[in-house]
Amino acid sequence: MESNNEYALITGASLGIGREIAKEFARRKINTLLIALDTPDLYDIQKDLQDNYDIRAECFPVDLTDALSAAAIYAWCNENDYVVKYLINNAGFGASGFFESVPLSRYNQMIDLNTKAYIAMTHQFLPDLKTLEESYIMNTSSMEANLPIPYKAVYTGTKNFVYAFSMALSKEVQRSGVRVSILCPGPVPTNEEGLKRLENQGKKGQMMALYPDQVAKYAVKNLLEGRLIIHPGRMNRWINRFHRMLPMPLKMQILEKMFRSYTEVSPSK
Ligand SMILES: NC(=O)c1ccc[n+]([C@@H]2O[C@H](COP(=O)([O-])OP(=O)(O)OC[C@H]3O[C@@H](n4cnc5c(N)ncnc54)[C@H](OP(=O)(O)O)[C@@H]3O)[C@@H](O)[C@H]2O)c1
Q1: What is the pLDDT of residues 217-258, one digit of tens each?
Q2: Which CATH architecture best describes the domain 6-263?
């Protein structure tokens, strides 16, 4: 059992991959701090973890696109003597379709949540993480981080940013006890729209898909083992190796064809 005031802080913990990551920590008897918007889902997962896993689970409802949110979360941790040993930056969303069909305000929100919030949280907590003998940061990127995907240009850009930022940071902290991991999931049906999108992609997409609990299990195991890049799913690992061998023009042609259907439906990841 973790020392009683050590916690895993997970953003986007109320739903999808984040919720399953929180459960995975709880299974390992690690206390959790759950961060998401103020919705019933957040309190549901808190209750679930408290009732079923014999750990402490606290929640802090906040909009992470608010520039002051990281400071507010940090102050809440200090006031309550919560020591964050595992920082999991996971909250994020996407948008797809022709680039110009998504309102600029939506893109700005996406950039705030998928990139700026990761920087703010890491900037706020890193000095304290460095004081611990051993601590962990995991940033959720995507399998798409190194695949410039047409019709998801801004989302792909944010995930590429998370990948590069995390990779660079992992080197900066190499002489401290902080380990940085980059989680790169493939398609994960976390909601109705995700399921629709997967159906739309046919067999190829379905072969790559994993459920949120499978992603979380693999992610937390590899995080604790100190792995830098975490690619859940054998098929996704294979694709990740394979696409690097393709010349860029051919790769872009394949990707454009694969994702053209995203101009017809409007999925959100
Ligand atoms: N699903 C996939 O196929 C897939 C693939 C690769 C990477 N990813 C990445 O994995 C991460 C999790 O994705 P997911 O599919 O699990 O997402 P999800 O099911 O939509 O859950 C997103 C989580 O983020 C929270 N959130 C959203 N906006 C927020 C805000 N402004 N402030 C605070 N919390 C906010 C949500 O809480 P509320 O609902 O309460 O707002 C929810 O807990 C994201 O970074 C995503 O880009 C997903």
Answers
A1: 999 999 999 999 999 999 999 999 999 999 999 999 999 999
A2: 3-Layer(aba) Sandwich (3.40)
